[in-house]
Design goal:
This protein is α/β, with parallel strands linked by helices and about 425 residues long. It is built from 16 helices and 15 strands. A 7-stranded mixed sheet has the order 3-9-8-7-6-4-5, with helices on both faces.
């Protein structure tokens, strides 16, 4: 059965699901997303996830018996991040985070966390922790490491967590390592959407300084929606045990294969070029915004992230809703500071997905200018229409994943076209 026939039968058999599929495709093709967690999976990863490997799974899995696919994915993760150990079996970042917490902490332990990150992953967890916040200073918009040190000495945390999802600057991870060592705490770094930039060496890596690091294989890395845990070798046994005890015993071969190819792609020149373009596009987005005189926080960006401060009379929800009607998807949030009485309403923007879809610096400058002009406008129906006109013209011919980022490889003489045609039935639509 070929793809066209399969789709026709799906449409006839289950029109409700077909309509949802069709709506999702139209929405993704007709909008431009600046949301950090949005980015299409690579065709290689998508194919393997929808391949015949989906018919198999690894059952009765134990720490002592790794399958070939798990070994391959874990080895490749360690290689690209220069890590000592990798756990590749958690289904998402929340699950990975809970494994880390359950493995390394006891009920009631204190956690010193940047912007209280990971507290949101404790909802419904039988374990409860005492979270203490550290954050940027409201005047400098930088982290005061001496204040962080004093907080750590005062509160004696068992773990220090840093995740840069709201911070466009690179930090000196050695300072957090020194603080963690001084108080005897684990240091956990969540890479967030910086995972790809770290893997390609475009920004500093926290791996040498952290006891544990986590990230999602999707968004920046264009992989399946799974969670990955990297750690020092001395924590390997306790983390592996916690994974099994939390129910991650049966593994899907298709997901592991998609994860393995994701890490392989991250070593290719095409992905390194993609990472370079992500940085260029983020800076171009800032330039376009600056031209309209909107206020940027923590600028200039040093990664994929750009923060736009909203005027006091605007709410993030209003801006998000109206921009989405114009086909521009953004994420609104509050940027916390060390002063609990001071926070900033912001739009958290990323250059990841636009780069995946092949936009360049000139395009991103226009996107920034368009967004800034909207924020400075009355934000009425005409302003929304203006955004829609520009975005529609920009994205109508764009792919969800540009061919320019596909790895170059010569086709082997062992290629079997008949076998490949049979496998194509399982292509992820």
């Amino acid at each position: 059965m070929n793809n066209k026939k399969l789709l026709k039968q799906l449409q006839a058999f289950d029109p409700d699901l077909w309509n949802l599929l069709h709506e999702a495709l139209n929405r993704q093709l007709s909008t431009l997303s600046l949301i950090p967690t949005d980015s299409a999976a690579s065709p290689f990863s998508s194919y393997l996830k929808g391949s015949v490997l989906g018919n198999d799974f690894i059952g009765y899995h134990t720490v002592e018996h790794y399958g070939r696919l798990e070994t391959m994915a874990a080895k490749r993760a360690c290689e690209i991040f220069n890590a000592e150990h990798a756990v590749v079996r958690t289904g998402n970042l929340i699950a990975a985070s809970r494994v880390v917490l359950l493995a390394l902490l006891k009920n009631g332990d204190t956690i010193l966390s940047f912007n209280l990150r990971k507290q949101e992953h404790c909802t419904g967890n039988q374990m409860q922790y005492n979270f203490i916040k550290f954050a940027i200073e409201p005047d400098t918009l930088r982290i005061d490491f001496e204040k962080v040190r004093n907080l750590a000495i005062q509160n004696k945390p068992k773990m220090i967590i840093y995740s840069p999802v709201n911070y466009p600057h690179n930090i000196d991870y050695s300072k957090l390592r020194e603080i963690a060592d001084e108080v005897g705490a684990y240091l956990w770094i969540d890479l967030g959407q910086n995972a790809g930039l770290i893997a390609t060496g475009k920004i500093p890596s926290p791996i040498p300084f952290s006891d544990v690091a986590t990230f999602a294989a999707s968004d920046a890395l264009h992989g399946p929606q799974t969670g990955v845990i990297l750690s020092k070798k001395n924590l390997a046994e306790i983390l592996d045990k916690a994974v099994i005890e939390t129910g991650h015993a049966s593994l899907k071969k298709n997901v592991l294969a998609a994860l393995a190819i994701t890490f392989r792609e991250a070593t290719c020149d095409g992905y390194k070029e993609y990472s370079d373009q992500v940085l260029k596009n983020a800076r171009a987005l800032e330039k376009g915004l600056k031209k309209t005189n909107v206020e940027l926080l923590c600028s200039p960006t040093e990664n994929h992230l750009v923060l736009v401060r909203l005027p006091n009379h605007q709410t993030a929800n209003e801006a998000v809703e109206k921009l989405s009607k114009g086909g521009l998807l953004v994420k609104g949030e509050k940027l916390l500071t060390s002063n609990s009485n001071i926070s900033f309403p912001v739009l958290r923007l990323s250059s990841l997905d636009p780069t995946t879809r092949s936009l360049n610096e000139d395009d991103m400058f226009v996107v920034g200018e368009t967004l800034g002009n909207f924020l400075n406008s009355p934000r009425d129906e005409r302003a929304v229409e203006s955004v829609a006109e520009i975005i529609k013209e920009m994205v109508e011919a764009l792919p969800l994943f540009s061919d320019e980022w596909l790895p170059d490889a010569e086709i082997s003489h062992g290629y079997d076209p008949d076998l490949m045609m049979k496998a194509m039935v399982y292509w992820s639509i």
